């Protein structure tokens, strides 16, 4: 399965230190994080909040451990702020990633997002974009996508819980409103399952647009509790809604088969934001690495 060198396997630093809740993993250092990534057998990483932003320093630290940068999250505010504000920040982010050798730029619209609000119910208060907001988002993403191509890079849109692009229908609408040569899709298994969608079905619909993959699993009993008790996204994370592939309920073998059949090339990034005091990052990284090797051969 998967042609040699077609797929690179990375892991996100959010398991070591949470970007939205820095108190989770506060004592875990950048050096510990990337050393344990390498020890677990991964080839790369996305960028976390403890990573140095000086490309020379970051290159040196990663090269010592045989790691590369796959991408990094970018928060867009195209629905609530002037385009120029987002574009200026995007270009700086793009240039940093370009210096690090990344080929894709992960973008998520954070206008009216509730994902960072500790006490806002995730499902009851999910934002729903107006027609005007959809238009602003689609037009703005297209313009950002063209800025990405100036550096021979690709914008990949990250559908995410607690945002205006969460469901399969919302993903489809965004893909229909944007051009394939400007906006691609980040396929995140965990966020789809959390939203109540079938990741395999979404994959089959959008496989031509998918240029980046996040491998994340869910604990269905925790997701049920989130719905029942009207918990927020951050409360869901702290409760353990997410976990690594092989530790939850998602059937990844079918997903890998479909990606392979369509000759996917690019990064797979294991991502499971958990409380590192409860879920040891190295232990879970090794668990994910073993599982992926067993069912995909990677």
TrEMBL record:
Q: Quick check: keyword Nucleotidyltransferase in the entry?
A: no
- One of this protein's Pfam families, by short name? AP_endonuc_2
Taking the record's annotation, the residue ranges forming a coiled coil are none
EC numbers listed for it are: 4.2.1.44
Obligatory cofactor(s): Co(2+); Mn(2+); glutathione
Task: Tell me where in this chain the Xylose isomerase-like TIM barrel domain is found.
Answer: 38-294
**Cross-referenced InterPro entries:** IolE (IPR023952), IolE/MocC (IPR030823), IolE/XylAMocC-like (IPR050312), Xyl_isomerase-like_sf (IPR036237), Xyl_isomerase-like_TIM-brl (IPR013022)
Recorded metabolic or biological pathway in which this protein acts: Polyol metabolism; myo-inositol degradation into acetyl-CoA; acetyl-CoA from myo-inositol: step 2/7
Q: Which reaction equation describes what this protein catalyses? A: scyllo-inosose = 3D-3,5/4-trihydroxycyclohexane-1,2-dione + H2O
Q: What class of enzyme is it?
A: lyase
Decide whether keyword Transit peptide is in the record: no
What keywords are annotated for this sequence in UniProt?
Cobalt, Lyase, Manganese
- Would you identify the family this protein belongs to, as annotated? Belongs to the IolE/MocC family.
HAMAP family referenced in this protein's UniProt entry, alphabetically: IolE (MF_01672)
Q: Which NCBIfam families match?
A: myo_inos_iolE
Q: What is this protein called?
A: Inosose dehydratase
Record organism: Paenibacillus helianthi
The gene behind this protein is: iolE
